[in-house]
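Worked example 2:
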Amino acid sequence: MNYQNILSNTSNKITTITINRPQKLNALNKDTIQELHDAFDEANRSDDTKVIIITGSGEKAFVAGADISEFADFDVKQGAKLAAKGQELLFDFVENLSKPVIAAINGFALGGGLELAMACHFRIASSNAKMGLPEVSLGVIPGYGGTQRLPQLVGKGRAMEMVMTAGMIDSNQALNYGLVNHVTSEEELIPFTEKIAGKIMRNSSVAIKGAIKSINANYKDGVDGFKTEIKQFGRCFGTEDFKEGTSAFLEKRKAEFPGK
């Protein structure tokens, strides 16, 4: 598939999606959000992909925010529709993919950029990364899930402070908050992320799919995460991966999971 605003490359079972609007600091506009949806969907369906990495082009930004010029003149109805459609098309979509998605945060991750990173299953940042939700400085609030996911990751008090002050935190503070899992040098960001992806790929993709669904269930209103876990745990027993994993363990050999 040909894209205008992103790049997508698959190698060694890792699909790397790069937001490629460096002149706009990789800001998210309507077309980019649609292309990201399509690229994530394609990677999630592909047998050639086991892990997805999302990053930004250039050295300055992962995603510096949304493209404000697209919605500066919106009314109430249009604003609500913008948030609803964006959440459905990209942010909630990424969070619920069955394949692991890792955000490799290079530089600024602000507004919609941080919201995209938080929708991923976990985050790795370069040492020059800066993160924040500055929307209230524009007279609006985070609308792509930021007010919900940030408290889940860093706690209510820290989320309130970050949103209310519209300030940025650096990568070390993000690590201390639990917003990112690791911090690396700029040069090592992608190699380190690929190394983590390699560790993930040694394991059962079927089991990982069930684990993602179970963990996410804990954060959904009206859903009993424990019941979801029990259901997904039971399903594992009917898979070829379970048979291979247990046989390999008992036979003291490395498992070769078929992903079924």
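Residues 76-95 form the longest helix (20 residues). The radius of gyration is 19 Å.
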